[in-house]
Design goal:
The protein has about 190 residues and is an alpha/beta fold. It has helices at about 30, 40-45, 50-55, 90-100, 115-120, and strands at about 5-10, 45-50, 70-75, 85-90, 105-110, 130-135, 155-160, 165-170. The protein has one domain (about 5-180): Dihydrofolate Reductase, subunit A (3-Layer(aba) Sandwich), CATH 3.40.430.10. The protein has an 8-stranded mixed β-sheet. α3 links the parallel β2 (about 45-50) and β3.
């Protein structure tokens, strides 16, 4: 099981538009039906994990966004109207254990929310950060992170061009994992 964050981001670093919509929804190529690779990405996933802020809008959607995925939500309280099959927990470590216990071998899509991505990264549980950079400048919105710290341990793993000028950039988070207890690196 790998936990893979996939996030659209504007060329000037915003994951949402100034109005709060996900960055990819402003891209004309996405609006015209291009998937920006999300269909291929989800084909290897069996679960999705997200924070409450990302999850709550799905409760009023006309259709459930994750029909074929187990859903886990990091939230201090269970949002009203949450389907019974959705697992919630307020503690990232406990939620991670629930994800691992339910996993049947597929990957987990860590659906945006900068705080949730950072929480799983801090646990050493984030395997990849996959950014889809859309060729737009927003000038405002929510940033993925206020600053990028070189000590995050992200290693460039690959890129590919997507329709309409977007680019997918993949980073491995292997270098950011804390050492295993008892390993030589943990005894330094």
């Amino acid at each position: 099981m790998k936990i893979r964050a996939r996030q659209a981001i504007s060329a000037d670093g915003y994951v949402t538009t100034p109005a709060g919509w996900p960055a990819h929804t402003a891209d004309p190529a996405f609006v015209s039906g291009e998937s920006h690779g999300i269909r291929e990405f989800l084909a290897g996933c069996e679960a999705a994990v997200m924070g409450r802020t990302t999850f709550e809008p799905a409760l009023t959607n006309d259709r459930w966004p994750w029909p074929d995925l187990d859903v886990f939500v990091l939230a201090s309280r269970r949002p009203a109207g949450t389907p019974d099959h959705v697992v919630t927990d307020s503690d990232p470590e406990q939620l991670l254990e629930k994800i691992r216990a339910a996993n049947r071998g597929g990957d987990v899509h860590l659906v945006g929310g900068p705080r949730t991505i950072q929480a799983f990264h801090a646990l050493g549980a984030l395997d990849t950060l996959e950014l889809v950079v859309v060729p737009l400048l927003f000038g405002g919105g929510m940033r993925l992170t206020p600053t990028v710290d070189p000590s995050l341990g992200l290693a460039f793993a690959g890129e590919r061009a997507l329709p309409g000028g977007s680019v997918e950039i993949v980073y491995s988070c292997e270098g950011s994992r804390p050492p295993l207890p008892g390993s030589p690196a943990s005894q330094r």
